[in-house]
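Subject: mismatched residue count in predicted assembly?

I count 94 residues in my input, but I want to confirm that the predicted structure covers every chain. Input:
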Amino acid sequence: MKFNKEELIKEGYIEVKPGFWKRPKSALLFCVDCQSEDFIYFMVTNEIWKIIKGKSSILCIHCVEKRLGRKLTINDFTDASINELIFYGYHLKS
Ligand SMILES: [Zn+2]
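Triage response: the counts match. Full output below for your records.
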């Protein structure tokens, strides 16, 4: 994976907890359900969006899981580059 800690830091990201990075400059975005700004950015598959009716909304992972009624798995995320951090987090946990 072409993932580089130093590059993330240069881009302005901070590590909020081990393996989870966010960029404070993007803090204008917040979860429509819980108003939390403290989440990482990710993209889930269209199937998941359809189930949770989240299209064009911003939701944190916890609220996606709440709407979905189950935990998200690695297969629920698209392979978009924004998810590299998610995959990196999973990588750290495994
Ligand atoms: Zn939320």
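Residues 5-93 form one domain. Marking this ticket as 'not a bug'.
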